[in-house]
Amino acid sequence: MSFFFSARRHGRAPLFSLTGYLGVLATSLALAAPALAADALSLAEAQRLAIERSRQITAQDAAVTASREMAVAAGRLPDPVLKIGVDNLPVSGPDRGSFTADFMTMRRIGVMQEITRSDKRSFQAERYQREADKGLAEKDKAIADVERAAAIAWLDRYYAEAMASVIASQREEAQREREAADAAYRAGRGSQADVLSARAAVAQFDDRMDDAARRVRSAKIALARWVGDIADQPLSGQPAFDTIRLDPASLDTQLAHHPEIAVLNKQVDVAATEVKLAEANKKSDWTVEVGYAQRGPGYSNMISFGVSVPLQWDQKNRQDRELAAKLVTAEQARAERDEMLRAHTAETRVMVAEWQANRERLARYSRELIPLAQERSGASLAAYRGGKATLAEVLGARRGELDVHLSRLQLEADTARLWAELNFLFPTSHGAMPAAAAISRNTK
Fold this sequence. Notes:
There is one protein chain. By secondary structure, the protein is of the alpha+beta class. The chain has one domain (8-77, 131-284, 315-440): Outer membrane efflux proteins (OEP) (Up-down Bundle). The protein has helices spanning 21-32, 43-53, 55-74, 118-186, 192-227, 251-255, 259-280, 319-385, 391-423, and strands spanning 8-10, 12-15, 81-87, 106-115, 243-244, 286-294, 302-308, 439-440. Strand 1 and strand 2 form a beta hairpin.
């Protein structure tokens, strides 16, 4: 929100004069965000570019692919083991080192295969599939984070430039007022105090312009982190932050599908699968082995076969404790999810309430504070014309009016940031928020 001054001559030093608030708004937006520029950067385009450039999303795709590949591998039997060796080779006496002289010496080759039970292999594969599902949920969270951060960076630059354009336009008017005050003083129609007041006003605007330029540079750097060199392009469009995609009456239901909660839901699924795997581990897997042994020419060759079974003789202190650990881990995952949901719900309710309150404050600025500031400036101007006020007092009133307009613009920027935080809790690719339609809170 902005306004501008116009110099007028009324016998004494020319003074600033404010136009209507709507004219000011049009001026600042025209200076800050030329929406008709062909190469202007819109908020939606900035978010799209940010997603394209995000390496975090690429990393999540890689994690999902890795988990799916592991799910296939985990569902297969372990690789068979080839066993080659020599049994009973003499190391002393006349047959020392001979492979054929002693009837007990055998050259052996065999294969050993661990037979992992099918349900256990199924649970192992399911665990990695749950990890893949968790990776997809983390990708959604990353997309929402990128869209939200890019939107905030875009809005920060938008309002930084809007404020800078307001201050720049006022600095130009202040410079013209300074020149008029100098001319009036030389002509004997003005005082030295008026000249000094006009110069001080210009100096103050210069300081504000330097600070505003710094804010614009910082905002461009922050936006470039998401969209690259295109961050220097002009911005287009003002966001309609009077509507959010959340219904405060059903936040619990909606936020149950929040990407961060979805990640914790998938972690609960992973933990539940690990419980089933720990239960399956209470039953031993068998190992089957077959071997062929070759002896000396005068002796028969032999084959061997056998089965190995682990003896879970201390199951209460091993398998049972492993299962107990997985059970409490699953309970931990559920508790963390529930606590996170409560925290998100409370935080979101606070933001919604602040967003609604800010919109009411914006209406108060338009309805009361800005008109009062304008009336004060007008009263100061009238007193100055009547010789009952100094130019310094008029300039002070004008600065106060400028501060009111800039305060409203800062409040609008804060409200827009809240809007971005709320509107991009979910990726825009998901469309409407779950279990609720978009709402609009009309300011009274």
